[in-house]
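Now for one record.
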Amino acid sequence: MSDMEEKFPRALWVRLIIYIAVGHLFAAFVYLLFEAGAK
């Protein structure tokens, strides 16, 4: 596990988590728009 941490610095992991969180929030927002439009 130590080589994985050496290859990927902490800043990259934080950025990856932020991008995943923002992507999920955006996807949830689009899904809610479609659900609201269907009704």
